[in-house]
Design goal:
disordered N terminus; about 450 residues; two-stranded antiparallel ribbon; mainly alpha; 2 strands; single chain; globular; cell membrane
């Protein structure tokens, strides 16, 4: 049996049936939700499917990182002008989740995933013909909205089916499988760049998106157990988000994850400049240095399961955030105080970025446990803040770029400190938490507390 436990079929989970406290007429599904395949939800198969879906994001970012200097030459722009498209993508990704999350709570996960993949495919095809960095930024923004739609259903689907440590194990399993994408993506991008051109990278994204569209249509089950009582007016969505933000301890977990992720996004945005321009690494070698970070993330993810047998989610989160901060402090001094070399910088970057393997699954599972009825909305808010913060970090690094690595290391240090402050706030919080029902301003619903007391 899988480490994430035996999962029942859709019928056993009462999917599409009235919840005990809801009238039958309020559990109607839309066409795409009701036509979901009634497959057995084997945890490993589900993890593989969700990981492949979430991999649309790292494929869209990491495959073209080695090609950024070549794209800049093609557009007649600077490397940093093209690097802005990374931040643009992150903003669109955040917006896609902000919109897609609450909608998926109302109409189901499958329709949102399918819509997002269609947008992703069309925009990837259009990018192959753009002729300027401005056009690239516009299309990357729209492409990312589709990617955000696809991503937001992953966390929501896990929350539909798992709680607490089981959710953390599932997130870790998904992350391990998904890490194949950033591990191989830069290498694939380099090969396509050498043998063809940068446009071939986006042709690959069209192919991958098309395959995922086929898989989701025929294989992805609808995991939502029931719909809210009614969709309500648009303002009700904002009330729902406000309710999430008023759940203090949950927000602490969300901000911890945001800070730790922003450390990674800061490096990600400036990695082509750091390795290719500053240290003079060739585009062919760049993927291997980038892949070292992914290896550490995978190792940390695999350590998560045995750690969960002995520790609570928030304790593992504190360990990961603490190691990340220590590594970033070492990186800051290695680059800005000592004489920076690849031999000193790469291992510290690996630890700084690799701790995401410990922080991400535990912060996400702890946060999501507060919101059993609105997993899509909660996931959307978490993803929106996470990716929007990463986008702002990237833009600030670009704005203060001075030809050194000082801006990126300052950004990484600030966010690592922030993550540690937030995780200690969560550990110290002793007040019981109540998550809002979100369907009416007057109604509240008790949720199971996360073991962080």
């Amino acid at each position: 049996m899988s480490s994430v436990g035996k999962l029942k079929s859709c019928s056993d989970l009462d999917i599409g049936k009235p919840a005990p406290h809801l009238p039958p007429h309020e559990t109607e599904w839309n066409h795409m939700a009701t036509n979901a395949p009634n497959t057995e939800l084997n945890p490993k198969r589900l993890a593989l499917l969700l990981a492949a879906l979430i991999a649309t994001a790292p494929f869209a970012i990491d495959t073209y990182l080695p090609a950024i200097p070549a794209m800049a030459d093609d557009f007649g722009a600077t490397t940093h002008a093209v690097e802005v498209s990374i931040s643009t993508f992150l903003i669109g990704f955040a917006l896609g989740q902000l919109i897609g999350g609450p909608v998926s709570d109302r109409i189901g996960r499958r329709p949102i995933a399918l819509t997002g993949l269609v947008v992703y495919i069309i925009t990837s095809a259009i990018i192959t013909s753009v002729e300027s960095s401005t056009a690239l930024n516009v299309m990357r923004f729209i492409q990312a909205i589709g990617g955000g739609f696809a991503l937001v259903v992953v966390g929501a689907s896990v929350r539909d089916l798992y709680d607490g440590k089981e959710a953390a194990r599932m997130f870790a399993l998904i992350a391990v499988i998904m890490m194949i994408a950033p591990l191989v993506a830069p290498t694939v991008g380099s090969v396509l760049l050498v043998w063809f051109n940068w446009q071939a990278i986006f042709v690959l994204l069209v192919i991958y998106g098309s395959v995922m569209l086929f898989v989701v249509w025929f294989k992805m089950p609808e995991t939502t157990k029931y719909r809210p009582r009614y969709a309500g007016p648009a303002r009700r969505i904002w009330w729902t988000y406000l309710g999430v933000l008023r759940t203090r301890k949950a927000v602490g977990f969300m901000l911890t994850h945001t800070g730790a992720s922003a450390v990674m996004f800061s490096f990600l945005t400036d990695s082509p400049f750091m390795y290719i321009d500053f240290f003079g690494v060739s585009p062919a070698v760049f993927p291997y240095l980038f892949g070292c970070n992914v290896v550490v993330i995978v190792i940390c993810n695999r350590l998560n399961n045995p750690l969960l047998r002995r520790l609570e989610c928030h304790q593992i989160l504190m360990i990961g955030a603490g190691i990340q901060l220590a590594s970033v402090i070492g990186l800051f001094f290695a680059i800005n105080v000592l004489e920076p070399t690849l031999y000193s910088v790469v291992p510290l970057v690996m630890l700084s970025v690799g701790m995401i393997g410990l922080t991400a699954p535990n912060a996400t599972a702890s946060f999501m446990q507060y919101f059993p009825h609105i997993g899509g909305t909660a996931t959307a808010l978490m993803g929106t803040i996470q990716f929007a913060t990463g986008a702002v970090a990237g833009m600030m690094i670009g704005h203060f770029h001075d030809g050194t690595l000082l801006p990126v290391t300052i950004s990484m240090l600030c966010f690592a400190i922030f993550a540690n402050l937030m995780v200690h706030f969560v550990a110290e919080a002793k007040l019981p938490e109540v998550a809002y029902d979100f369907n009416t301003p007057e109604t509240k619903t008790e949720t199971k507390p996360v073991s962080a007391e």
